Amino acid sequence: MTVxxxxxxxxxxxxxxxALVMIMGLLAGCGSKEEETxxxxxxxxxxxxxxLVNKLNPLPDDWEDKVETVHMTNTVGDDVEVExxxxxxxxxxxxxxxxxxxxxxxxxxxxxxxAQQEIWDDFTEQYGEAYTKKTVAQPGYSEHHTxxxxxxxxxxDGKDVVENEDMIQYPEIWEKIHAKLADYGFxxxxxxxxxxxxxxxxxxxxxxxxxxxxxxxxxxxxxxTLEVYLGAVKDTDPEIDYGKSELYTEEELDEAMVQVKCQxxxxxxxxxxxxxxxxxxxxxxxNIKWLNESAEDKTYSKAIKITSDFHTPKSGYGSFEKDxxxxxxxxxxxxxxxxxxxxxxxxxx
Length: 349
Prior knowledge:
Layout: H1 17-43, H2 63-66, E1 69-73, E2 79-83, H3 84-98, E3 104-108, H4 113-127, H5 129-135, E4 149-156, E5 159-161, H6 164-167, H7 171-181, E6 186-188, H8 195-198, E7 206-209, H9 213-222, H10 226-229, E8 239-241, H11 250-264, E9 271-277, H12 285-294, E10 302-311, E11 325-335, E12 341-347
Parallel strand pairs: 8-9
Antiparallel strand pairs: 1-2, 3-4, 4-5, 4-7, 6-7, 9-10, 10-11, 11-12
């Protein structure tokens, strides 16, 4: 919204002291009114549709006061709150997709910081802190707080497909959806292979409204993440070496490496250069026992060792050396009964 100054033109040429004093008093009065007008207008200013909220960048303090939202009810009966312009754009996208017999609805969008805290507390109580940190965004650092992040679900043959493990089985449908996102000001937020930048695994259903279709198209065509496009981080393409394994498939190894990459995304300024599977020989009873003793509240039946190369920023990060190449930095992960990998230990052992 444009901020009007509210200033007034004052007559010139008055020389008498009394007149000057009166003018100065009038100017002071106008100044205070002008300042008040500006403050009122600033409080009504719109949001920044290019805002970056992730594991390193919290929701702006005044966001919840500024954002305008609408509510809708999806096909499963849930109330979903969405930023107003993002919802209008979503409806146009939805209408366009239906012309190709692709049907979607909104699973979730805006979530308040308070609601995120409740989710965090519930998950911590039920599943423990380690699992919560891996699966739930820290309150205040979730993009869903903005109202600009939309999670879609599919409707196939009149049936709602809402579970992640089910939706991922329809790559050809997601490809059609992704092809139209930029036309309506959306981008695919969490890309494959960019987990070390975004901090999250690939989510074909998670789209982000950036308002300007031209900007959305530029980001999409470049294959950028929002972080890279905004210059918040440097884009890197780490070398991945799955080695040779008789214990794990490449898909299973990739799932473990994604956990490492998501963790790495929170290491501000560090650049990931390589990840390597260390080999089957590290899946020993001794190492599994060590991981179980180190774990807070989980029991593991398998162990994986992954080594990494990365470079630290000139400003440094944590206890790492500044502007330094770290080689063969170790990550130890345990696999639980459900096949989920957790980072249990890291460093030089």
